[in-house]
Amino acid sequence: MKRREFLRALAGVVAAPPFAARAQGSPVIGFLHAGSPEENEKRLAAFRKGLAAGGFVEGQNVSIEYRWARGKNDALADLAADLVRRNVAMIATPGSTAAAVAARKATAKIPVVFSSGTDPVGLGLVQSLNRPGGNATGITSLNAEVAAKRLGLFRELAPRTSHFFTLVKPTSELAAPFVKDLEGAAAGLGIHVEVLNANTAHEIDAAFERIPHESGCGMVFGPEGFFYVHRKHIAALALAKGLPTIFDVRDYVEAGGLASYGSDYYAVMELTGSYAARVLKGENPADLPVQQATKFEMVLNRATARALGLEISPTLLATADDVID
Questions:
Q1: pTM
Q2: Which domains can be identified in the chain, with CATH numbers?
Q3: Is 115 helix (H, G, I), strand (E, B) or coil?
């Protein structure tokens, strides 16, 4: 298979869904994401909702060209370049920081609207939050910056935890800021977090094997699209090892993880869609301040807690935004 044919298949271009039909004479959004459409169906619906609230309905007065890396972040640069060659009106990268970085590197002219799990200034996406200054703007969910809250919640959920681990993808742009914030939060609580690395699915298994099979161990996760793709496997590995876990988004908890605390991703996706509509109407990304997520949620999995021998306090159950049984 030729390289271009491979990329088209990877991105889902050949088998585009019916809703991606092109509206005649309408602007075209290039949609770039590190994941796959199957696992992002609800998030896509939220993005389209925000887009529609701004006056753009897919298939009617706007078209969307989808490019999905399906967990292969190395493909993002080529997929972004393909959208640039197609001269799309803008590139949207909601819920995928790796895709945002790839799009920003691919073009300095086509507007880019992103949502990012960490500081977009540190990533080089914008010059400042109030005045982005370039061709990109969007939403920051600040998931990497809520490490202290996530860690404190985890200690309350699993008070016997004394040996903390975190898993990062060392080649990811999100790894360094997440580890920095987590270590700072941990130091404030008088604990140490051991960092484990995984760049591949096989290395995820190897990382879990390094964790002692004994009580007192726990794992804290931050924003990382690569791990999101493997969330069911990660949840199964943790449960098999009797390992309490806390994540940044609820999808991991729905897959069997113990808990999550972070921004409401559906709200972030909807807000990204509304920002994309504003750019399509002619607003300059350089002048559109990067918005910060204001809605955060805590989700607990009571069935996983029971399997781990943990009892969730009535206070946590009452304050949780959602409890999965």
A1: 0.80
A2: 3-141+264-294 (3.40.50.2300), 144-263+297-324 (3.40.50.2300)
A3: strand
